[in-house]
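tool_call: predict_structure(chain=1)
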Amino acid sequence: MTSDPTALTPEDLDLLERVAVRVVELRLEVPAILTLESVRPMSVVAGQAMIFFQPLAQALLRFGDYRRFAALAERRETIEALVTAIERRAEAARRARTTASPPAPGAAAGPGAPAPGDPPSGGAR
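tool_result:
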């Protein structure tokens, strides 16, 4: 049995994972997923458009990786793999933020609130 020529290689999956990490670092997971899902039916056109927008998008990837990613974007299974990677990374980042150390006592009280140990202020004097 021959291997599937459209299957993503480990190098391809590694590149998609790096893109997902960078998208989550920039907290762009929602716009990225919306964009990816909306261009899925036109993935070939989207891949070609990426070449046009290459100077703007190099904030995410180096030149060689970007060209490879543009070629991968023309394949529909790549879009699904990238969306899954972004969702997985975003969920891990959300869990990490919620389990971070809680704020110090009184820090969440907001401006104008008495500091811990201050006597309570009375109503009318």
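agent: Residues 6 and 16 are 15 Å apart (CA to CA). Proceeding to next step.
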